[in-house]
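Model: Ready when you are.
Researcher: Fold this.
Model:
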Amino acid sequence: MAIDGIGTTLSSHTVAGVRAQNEQVRTLGAGFSKLLEGAAQVAEGAQGAASSSAAAPIDPNRGQTVDIFA
């Protein structure tokens, strides 16, 4: 019974199959690196914007609503 699935297992572990999987991992890794770089840039931009602009006062009559376009 276990021998029935051995052909499928072996065919997915050929040299070409392993190379294709390695290429997919490289592509995913590169995409993940770009995503992290973008997130870091957004975080730096948000931190820079927060430190460079004065905070808008919170109107106690409106709860915690702050006009972010001020």
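Researcher: Now this one.
Model:
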Amino acid sequence: MFDTATIASIVAGASALMFATMGETISEKAGVINLSVDGSMMLAALAGFVVAFETGNVWLGFPAAAVVGMLVALVVAFGSIKLSLNQVAVGFVLFALCTELSRFLGQSYVGRPPVAVPAWEIPGLSSIPFFGPVLFDHNLVVYLAYVTVIATYVFMYRTRRGLELQGIGERPEAAHSRGVPVNRLRYAYTALGGALIGIGGAAFSLDVILGWSDRPTRNLGWIVLAIVIFGGWHPLRAAIGVLLFGALQAYAINLVPEYPSLSQVLPSIPFPAMIVVLVVVNWKALLKWLDRYPFLRAILRSDPPTAIGTRFEVN
């Protein structure tokens, strides 16, 4: 059922969620929950498509989408840091606002000819059996999505700035006592995370689905939030979560010809499946069992940043 073409499509189709998941991981690692992900991705997808369509240059759509995602994320950060508002409430309101705004502004672009990212296969490598189509026969956006995963991991766990990022999300008071500008960095990392979420939105309209429709993200922004939790706020595990979700989607779609009467139900299976996975991952009995095996716990489970969702005040 998972032939070479299907696996290659899973790898390629995951690009949008890879960008968005890395963005949300960075933001939450800094202590800021951006619940507006789905709405932000929709508005960014529209911005990316409009700019690419009007200019005829697909690559200009991505920075435009990044700016939109960044601005939305900065509103979340400003509401929390400056106005002492609840991050979850602000994020949810922004989700609703961005969703309706994108639908309203995008009405005239529904059905317009798509602007697609050109293919960029790697000569020589793309002809290798199995690995060629799966890994080396995509476009630049797909390659950059996976480079972003690696770069996020290296930055978080192999650089001093990455340790500061973890510090402001885990123990902001201790970070502040060492001279780390906690709130300034929270703004910066939330903006960076928002930019990646925006790029993920552009990847939907310019690479994955192509064109503008009423809801191009198909509610997958909410899955991003679940995958970040599933991945334990770790970039590599989150990336695996994105691929697993893509595999579930492909499996469900492949079942449709065998069960045509369930054609409306099967494509939605990955969503409750992710909920089941989250329940299992947080199951108390499993956590107690993992406590006996620290190595396995380190691989399968991570606790959320201690200060996630909380405001830091400088005394």
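Researcher: Key takeaway?
Model: The two ends are 59 Å apart (CA to CA).
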